[in-house]
Every structure is written in structure tokens, then in C-alpha cells.
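Could you join me in thinking about how sequence relates to backbone shape in a protein? To get us started, please write out a protein record for me. Would you write everything just below, so we can both look at the same thing?
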Amino acid sequence: MNSLSFPIAAFGIGGAELLIILCIALLLFGGKKLPDLAKGLGKSIREFKKAAAEGEDEGNEAAEKKAAAKPEPSKTHGSN
């Protein structure tokens, strides 16, 4: 499964529907503005993925620090 087919299949959009959506976008925004919009969308997706990956890395580091700082309970035998 390639990366393009999954998102399209997830929304139930086929080839004909995608073509209609692209034609409507072309009519609304024009031929000159559409590439700029696609470029901006691509940058936004890249930034979102980058921020999500950084957040995941920070979450993992915080969990590791918390686990390292947590003292081991003493295992003594005797009465309390």
C-alpha cells in the first residue's frame, strides 16, 4: 500500500471525486494561487510532523528521567 492510497481510501474518495475537488479548487483559487497554497500546505504538514516527533522525543526523555530519579524501594526483611 503506497502512502497516497491510504488517506484517500480512509475518506472514501475515489479518482473521480478527487478530480472534481481539484477542479473546484482551481476555479476558486486560480491557477497562480493554487501552487502557493499547496506549497504552504506541504510546509505546514512538515512542521506538524516535526513538532510531533520533537514532542514524542521530549515525552520519552521525561519518562526516562522520571524512571532514573525514582529510588528503588529497600528490600529489608524484618518487622515494621
Remarks:
- The first helix runs from residue 5 to 10.
- Residues 27 and 34 are 10 Å apart (CA to CA).
- The chain is about 75% helix and 0% strand.
- Residues 5-68 form one domain.
